[in-house]
Specification:
The structure holds two protein chains of two kinds. Chain A is of the alpha+beta class. Chain A is built from 19 helices and 29 strands. In chain A, the strands form seven sheets. In chain A, strands 12-13-10-20-17-18-19 form a seven-stranded mixed beta sheet. A six-stranded mixed beta sheet of chain A has the order 2-1-6-5-4-3. Chain A has a five-stranded mixed beta sheet with strand order 15-23-22-21-16. Classes of the chains: A alpha+beta, B alpha+beta.
Chain lengths: ~725, ~150
């Protein structure tokens, strides 16, 4: 078994910090250690989650990928809590996807997305820690000839109560590893947690401060060559003709190759030379059927879907159409949300080594097993002859999970140069043009109020792109994409609507453009929460009611939704005017939703100047995630999610012209920067009894809270994002 | 060929004149702490110090530098992560994925060198690096902590 030690540790540091810092990896070491040695007697593996070394180091195995969200630390806290080990002795390592395959998926699902790292694996990782503790205690009891029930563990020390004898985990680990694992494994009540539930410092910070953290892009293997790639900028297009004569004569160039029928690659000694030579390759594209597609033409398709007779139903009760027809007052609005690129700070990259016998890939991935499957498919070798080494991610946000297009490319290149490691790095331009984009949708909302201003009917028609249809088409049933209704589902799930509306219809007219979709942090909750929560604000205004009170009246059956909404309202002092900032009046807006298993709400405080300049002063956000494993990490996720959500709301969009994405870099794909960052106050409610995710849900409430605050400030409804197109001067 | 003074050492590099400093640092010198993010001086992931000032290395050809200019990368900021910015970052757990953080730390340390007690407005104005994980508020707090600015209340 080969275990990859998380590259923040040990051997790597010594080589990186030498002299100028120039370094070379041994081919398998030190980055990839032979764990056959590790799991032997010298370094006992108590179970798949826990290794205790004789020097008392506790190695906790983490199956999910660390991409900044803190899962290495959070999952280690859960294991350590049950293990009763000394937290200061804890280090982490990734098992590889190949090991997971060879050991019958002993580590379970490696997929890291959907805010599910902790909420999907808390049970079995805690049991892993608890089982290891039970075995360590049993081994000590056996050595002393006493019942295990008379012994206890704390801080990596095992004590026999009656005699006061004690020993340490490291001393009994070898004997413990030989014991049969227990079958009945009780877990602690979370109210007795000592490590979990606490804001312990991250385990992976130190190496991120001095340049020693290794990302996929930073890998260097002996004899490695570097590859730069350009795929046809029009999705679905192919290579027509290639003239590479000039490029082949340029310094350092080794090969000019094709990948499939749609991409040209230059392989050179350095990436900069490869990229420079690629710029000199004259490529004529056969742009194919999508050459004339544009955002404007697809908007017409979506608009038609808003009134199409056929649509897949997501949530329905009563008769919304009849209620609307009989309503005293009707309100109607159309909203839209554009394509977005994930724009991870680290562009897509992978290093591949192919021989006729074996293929290995080193890459930042959110799903090692999916990367292994892609490697096997692209290499033409069975999965058992392939391996993927997960490297720390410079951002993921969903781009590096479901689709491993860059891995397939790297393997396809390496296969043409057997025995030579090839590092493929996309340029930022390639990354922007060949994303897997946040889906584009529109939504028509119609609401009916009775004479007293009560909501009697709501029809919400979504029209537009389905991620599932693009990535997992086998999961579409009768034209229905189940993920399309995130945050709008009937109760009982992980993303439910927070209102009881007597007559409700939410449906989706699927309309798919040629732009490939992807799971983008927050997924469909992003636009669904904007559509619903901004429209609820419109309805409240039309009913002449306070936006908070109007919502509360519909939320009696949804106490957890109501709990987070009330928490933010109380914190900001809703109902009393906000204090002006620098002479500017401050206005508030609310939003809430349920997604990825957590209940979230936000209140934004904004000013809009006479010139229409928006300033977001503060956002107060509440999250009820049931059990909170590391409150500080949750705060960081909430703050970070707002940067991601507000980037999309204020600035970012990917538009299509002539079949291709128009924005090629951060000069045209603008994102939120520090000058616009609001203060964020995070409220963490821990109602207990469930486990919700925290990486994504709050993204969805940032934009609608801000949009509703803008309306309060200006009387203007912004219904199509990004906001940069809107004139916010008071009407 | 170029002669550069990097992290206190003079090195000779055989490379085309128009190669950006970023790629010389990463590929010729193996200093991969300096990151490629955009290549057009937008994101700041490649920020290094040249004679103490923050420079975006992706947009500067190596031929623009002389041996007399002192280039400092994240690896050379301090021998043991003891720079006040690094210490503040550690105390506040500023990084998330960490990819932008070398550039962020180099920009922040250059800011403090020029303005030992920056106002919050100054920090927000001067720090234009992009972080997609969204560490901005902790970056601001980290700079204030390193500057010894009290932010209580």
């Amino acid at each position: 078994m080969n275990a990859i030690t998380h590259p923040s540790r040990r051997g790597l540091l010594a080589t990186v910090s030498s002299a100028l810092g120039a370094f070379t990896f041994g081919f398998h070491a030190p980055l990839v250690k032979s764990a056959a040695a590790q799991s032997g007697n010298a370094v006992p593996e108590i179970n798949v989650w826990v290794v205790i070394r004789p020097d008392e180091t506790v190695v906790i195995r983490i199956a999910r990928s660390e991409m900044g969200q803190g899962t290495l630390t959070g999952l280690a806290q859960l294991v350590a809590e049950e293990l009763e080990c000394d937290w200061s002795k804890v280090t982490t390592e990734y098992p590889t996807p190949g090991q997971n395959l060879a050991r019958n998926r002993a580590w379970g699902n490696m997929s890291t997305g959907g805010s599910r790292g902790i909420r999907d694996s808390h049970d079995y990782v805690r049991k892993g820690g608890a089982a290891a503790r039970m075995m360590l205690v049993q081994a000590a009891a056996n050595a002393w000839g006493v019942p295990a029930a008379e012994c206890s563990a704390a801080n990596s020390i095992i004590t026999h109560g009656p005699s006061g004898r004690s020993t340490s985990f490291g001393k009994v680990a070898e004997a413990a590893a030989r014991l049969s694992p227990p079958t009945d494994i009780p877990l602690k009540d979370p109210k007795n947690w000592k490590i979990a539930g606490k804001s312990v410092a991250r385990l992976d910070t130190a190496d991120k401060l001095n340049g020693s953290q290794i990302y996929g892009m930073d890998l260097r293997l002996p004899g490695m060559l570097n590859a730069a790639i350009r795929a046809c900028p029009v999705f679905g297009g192919k290579i027509g003709a290639v003239d590479s004569k000039a490029a082949e004569a340029m310094p350092g160039v080794k090969h000019v190759l094709r990948v499939g029928d749609n991409a040209v690659v230059v392989v050179a000694d350095t990436w900069w030379r490869a990229k420079t030579a690629l710029d000199a390759v004259n490529i004529t594209w056969d742009e194919g059927a999508n050459a004339n597609a544009s955002s404007a033409s697809f908007a017409e398709v979506m608009k038609a879907g808003l009134d199409a007779p056929e649509a897949a139903i997501g949530n329905r009760n009563g008769d919304a159409r009849a209620a609307l027809a009989g309503a005293a007052k009707r309100v109607e609005a159309v909203y839209g949300y554009p394509h977005q690129n994930h724009a991870c700070m680290e562009v897509m990259n992978a290093t591949a080594l192919w021989t006729p016998e074996r293929c290995e890939v080193w890459t930042p991935t959110q799903n090692g097993e999916a990367a292994l499957a892609a490697t096997a498919e692209a290499s033409g070798l069975p999965p058992a002859r392939c391996e993927v080494h997960k490297i720390h991610l410079g951002g993921g946000f969903g781009r590096r999970g479901a689709v491993h297009d860059w891995v397939r490319q790297a393997v396809a290149i390496a296969k043409q140069i057997p025995g030579t490691p090839i590092k493929l790095i996309w340029s930022r331009e390639e990354d922007m043009l060949h994303g897997r984009f946040h889906p584009v949708t529109m939504c028509k909302l119609q609401g009916g109020l009775d004479a007293q201003g009560n909501l009697v009917g709501l029809h919400m028609r979504i029209s537009g792109q389905s991620i599932v249809a693009g990535i997992f088409p086998q999961n579409i049933r009768d034209g229905r994409d189940p993920v399309a209704f995130q945050g709008l589902n009937a109760s009982g799930g992980e993303a439910d609507i927070g209102y009881t509306i007597p007559n409700l219809l939410i449906d989706h007219a699927m309309r798919n453009p040629h732009v490939p979709p992807g799971f983008w942090r927050g997924v469909n909750l992003n636009q669904n929460a904007i559509y619903l929560e901004c429209f609820m604000d419109e309805l409240a205004h039309a009913a002449g009611k306070d936006p908070l009170a109007f919502r509360q009246a519909l939320m009696g059956n949804h106490p957890r939704h109501l709990g987070v909404l009330n928490a933010v309202a109380e914190r900001v002092g809703w109902g009393r005017p906000a204090a002006p900032v620098n002479g500017q009046a401050v206005f508030r807006g609310l939003a809430h939703t349920h997604g990825f298993g957590s209940y979230v709400a936000a209140c934004a405080e904004v000013s809009v100047s006479d010139k229409g300049e928006l300033k977001i002063h503060r956002i107060v956000a509440a999250t009820d995630c049931g059990h909170a494993v590391n409150p500080q990490q949750i705060e960081m996720q909430v703050e970070g999610s707002f940067v991601y959500g507000l980037s999309a709301a204020l600035h970012s969009e990917c538009t299509v012209k002539n079949g291709r994405i128009e924005q090629e870099n951060f000069d045209t794909y603008q994102v939120l920067r520090m000058d616009e960052m609001p203060k964020v106050e995070t409220i963490i409610l821990q109602s207990g009894g469930f486990w919700g995710g925290v990486g994504e849900p709050t993204i969805a409430v940032a934009a609608p809270a801000v949009l509703n605050a803008i309306f309060a400030a200006t009387g203007k409804r912004v219904r199509h994002l990004p906001l940069k197109h809107a004139d916010l001067r008071r009407a | 060929m170029a002669k550069l003074n990097v992290n206190g050492r003079v090195v000779e590099i055989q490379v085309e004149d128009d190669t950006p400093l970023l790629w010389v640092l990463r590929e010729q010198l193996g200093l991969t702490g300096t990151k490629y993010g955009c290549g057009v001086a937008q994101c700041g992931a490649c920020t290094v110090h040249v004679d103490g000032a923050a420079v975006r290395a992706c947009a500067m050809p190596v031929s623009a530098f002389t041996e007399g200019q002192k280039i400092t990368t994240i690896e050379g900021l301090s021998p043991d992560s003891s720079h006040p910015i690094q210490q503040a970052w550690l105390a506040l757990d500023v990084p998330q994925c960490g990819f932008c953080q070398p550039g962020m730390i180099m920009a922040a340390s250059a800011l403090l060198a020029a303005h030992p007690k920056p106002t919050e407005a100054q920090i927000r104005e001067e720090m234009t690096n992009i972080c997609r994980c969204g560490t901005y508020n902790r970056v601001i707090a980290g700079i204030q902590r390193a500057a010894g600015i009290s932010t209580s209340g």
